Amino acid sequence: MSDRLAVRKTYKLYIGGAFVRSESGRYDEVVGFNFPRASRKDVRDAVAAARKAAGPWAARTAYNRGQILYRAAEALESRADTIGVPREEVQDAVDVLLHYAGWTDKLPAVLGGVNPVAAPFLSFSLPEPTGVVGILAPDAPALLGLVAEVAPVLAAGNVAVAILSEAAPLPGLDLAEVLGVSDVPGGVVNLLSGRRGELARALGAHRDLNAVVDAGGDADLSAELDRLAAETIKRVRHGAAVTSYDAATADALERLEAVTELKTAWHPVGA
Amino acid sequence: MTIETRTSIVWDYGRAPESTDHIRLKDRYGLFIDGEFSEPADGTYVPTTNPATEEPIAEVAYGGPDDVAAAVEAARAAAPKWAALKDLERAKYLFRIARLIQEHARELAVVETMDGGKPLRESRDVDIPLAAAHFFHYAGWADKLRYGVNAREVSPLGVVGQIVPWNFPLLMAAWKLAPALACGNVAILKPAETTPLTALLLAEICQEAELPPGVVAILTGNGDTGAALVREKDINKIAFTGSTAVGRDIQAALAGRAVGLTLELGGKSANIVFEDAALDQAVEGIVNGIFFNQGHVCCAGSRLLIQESVRDEVIAKLWQRMGRLRVGDPLDKNTDVGAINSAEQLSRIEALVAAGESEGAVRQTIECELPERGYWFAPTLFTDVSPAHRIAVEEIFGPVVSVLTFRTQAEAIEKANNSRYGLAAGIWTDKGAKAFEVASALQAGVVWQNTYNHFDPTAAFGGYKESGFGREGGPAGLRPYLQVVR
User: Is ipTM beyond 0.90?
Assistant: First the structure.
């Protein structure tokens, strides 16, 4: 028995690639740890950071984005023991990241194509990211449920602002440290802990958010998010908490489609 | 004869009106429910008028809440049989409809022009042929659905409600109905209040095609009819094309309900002219982009972005070209710009144009003789427009173009994307690499290089941002009408 005093971790929000306290200074407590209770201002800061990161992330090559997601899977695998969830859940989360890492350079071939228009044009339709996506992670499983929503959002070229499990926010905050040491650029994933209802309403009402992915499992909150989303015609996808690798990948294309825009370009052929 | 008198002769076009004696319109149309035309529950009929003459054309039933409920009930009853029909048989009905639209093309074009005010040249050469093409395209999908959805197992949604606008009445009905039916759904279509007639002729075509009763309902009425349809409990999907304001209401009304939704909404699309463009060709494209269908086009190129180095030249050429536009009788085969669709729309255009003037933009409107009756607005050009002016931000939905300028490609992209809308954009340049780069950077669902307002049933159409979500056309147009089984 060593009498060395452990160095305890101060949990922080993850915004724009930085680990920060809530600007409000508020904290909540879970299993003996304090964690930040993010504010509406933190939501706004996170959306601003995400918007800044959105263009450069989308502009990277699909190959590069795939490699970065793969790198995140590697980082998560190597830290499996540091995240307070069952090892199987971490492994499932790693596999989910791997699955979606492989999607980045397949999606255009699957969702896009050349349109055989009846005129002398090369017309093609290709998927593009919708932009900044707000995510409501489920209460449980805290890590897999979060990764299953974040991975397709990123694979499709979007950036994310995620509200973590309210009941168990620490695994999500631990994931921030995994992302921080992987090559995911700052601002591409932003993670906020706190009261889901408060944060989700602020996120859903934000005018610079393009889409909402809601796995929060609260029917009343879902309906309110729908109403808030209508204000700026946000895309909304509701889904159940993901509890297995299969559940995260069986409907992969639907998850990707929900945060994808199809752009049709017409270029002249001949004159 | 002196040279002066000889050269002063005006070589104008003679009148070339399309005849209307061949069209077979009834005096009065009921609601098309369960395969038959029926009286509206409360007996209300309202006239639909020709916006070019203000004369009534026919009386059309006004669908109230009871009628909406009846249509949904009939549709629900018809849904299982239609969904269970062998795929190729479903396809055959759609092929029949496509062919019948072609057979009735002339009549449909004339009625479209009378009811909506668009030039006959456009209804004849664009609206009606494209409507037939959409049915033809989606007919062929009916027995190949799994190939259109990446080999997933899919099933129809059931009863879909579809609300279409007045700018392309039959074409929008085709965009909505063809994929819905091909996917095995049954549909209730609500045409626009001011342009119900071609949808009613389409109902007759459905009868002629022996489409099973209840598979298509045509429910005429006004905004309240559409609102009632959206709020029907037993409906599985709503597809709406129209204004962003109404789209927002619909999205909010469906909050918390498991009802599919696609929205094709407004736009303020940028048409970008680079200095290396073929300028004469670009001017034709600018004119087509904003004056096609009187500018009543959701993807109209209403924000003209011109590179500063060619600004004066492009505006001079554009103004000269605008002076040659023939505004007037939509039934005249030489007419370029027809009637504004309704008095209400005319006042909206006038209000925004007045705002443009009061905010300090410079207005130029072509001088032309406008008919005494009807609703008209002469093609108008605004220069010295600032990005904050209402005429640079808000959708005018009329023959009014706002000119802004830019210096660099980066500035062009930034200005083009500086909009809450994201429906379409045009790029005029002869440099291929540049066109691809700019097209990729624009936040718009459709980008046209060296063309504008080109549509095709095989090519997805739909918006980014507040221009809506979901796509129509091509395989992407199937997805909103199907649910993935696994």
Answer: yes
